[in-house]
């Protein structure tokens, strides 16, 4: 079996370039807890945007809430700006089935009605179960369904990926 190696820092540079083309004066960044929040934080700094990015949790709007219960990110929604009428750039580390993004958008609308919501992800791994697509994706890969790809961040803020077998 071949080992997949993804250079998360190189992919971040590609994401930065793609996101930079999408930014307008009224755009705000919102990262999905936790990997997307890390991306939003670093993009906010690297793009020299004013203020701070938002963080959104998908936990309370997931369609599998009954079986998963409260997750660690359930209370992490923090939107330090008005959502109503804003151009939202939603960020996540890995796009897979689309269920997390659907739940995050539902949570976002609990805070108001944005003018638009666009999605940017570090990795799109296919396998969509919902009609959700990223406007920007630094990489597109295929992984077996039993493998989980997640973003990791070290103490210096550098990104890497963990690939784990689902239990």
Name a few traits of the molecule.
4 helices; 7 strands; two-stranded antiparallel sheet; 167 residues; globular; alpha/beta
Provide a compact summary of the structure.
This protein has 167 residues and is of the alpha/beta class. The protein is built from four helices and seven strands; from the N terminus they run αβαβαβαββββ.
Outline the secondary-structure elements:
Layout: H1 8-22, E1 27-32, H2 35-46, E2 54-56, H3 65-68, E3 87-95, H4 99-109, E4 116-124, E5 136-140, E6 147-153, E7 159-165
Parallel strand pairs: 1-2, 1-3, 3-4, 4-5
Antiparallel strand pairs: 6-7
Oligomer: single chain
Q: What do the pLDDT scores average to?
A: 91
Structural class: alpha/beta
Regions with little confidence, pLDDT below 50 for 5+ residues: none
Helix content: 25-40%
Strand order of the largest sheet: 2-1-3-4-5
Put simply, the count of helices is 4
Would you give an account of this structure?
- This protein has helices spanning 8-22, 35-46, 65-68, 99-109; strands at residues 27-32, 54-56, 87-95, 116-124, 136-140, 147-153, 159-165.
- The protein is an alpha/beta fold.
- 35% of the residues are buried.
């Amino acid at each position: 079996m071949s080992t997949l190696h993804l250079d998360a820092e190189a992919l971040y540079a590609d994401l930065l370039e793609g996101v930079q083309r999408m930014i307008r004066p009224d755009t705000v960044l919102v990262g999905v807890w936790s990997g997307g929040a890390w991306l939003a934080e670093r993009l906010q700094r690297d793009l020299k945007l004013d203020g701070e990015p938002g963080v959104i949790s998908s936990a309370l709007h997931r369609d599998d809430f009954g079986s998963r219960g409260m997750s660690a990110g359930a209370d992490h929604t923090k939107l330090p700006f008005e959502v109503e009428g804003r151009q939202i750039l939603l960020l996540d580390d890995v796009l897979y089935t689309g269920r997390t993004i659907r739940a995050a958008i539902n949570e976002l609308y609990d805070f108001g009605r944005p003018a638009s919501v666009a999605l940017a992800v570090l990795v799109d791994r296919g396998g969509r179960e919902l009609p959700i697509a990223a406007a920007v994706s630094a990489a597109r890969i295929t992984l077996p369904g039993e493998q989980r790809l997640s973003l990791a961040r070290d103490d210096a803020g550098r990104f890497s990926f963990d690939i784990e077998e689902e239990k």
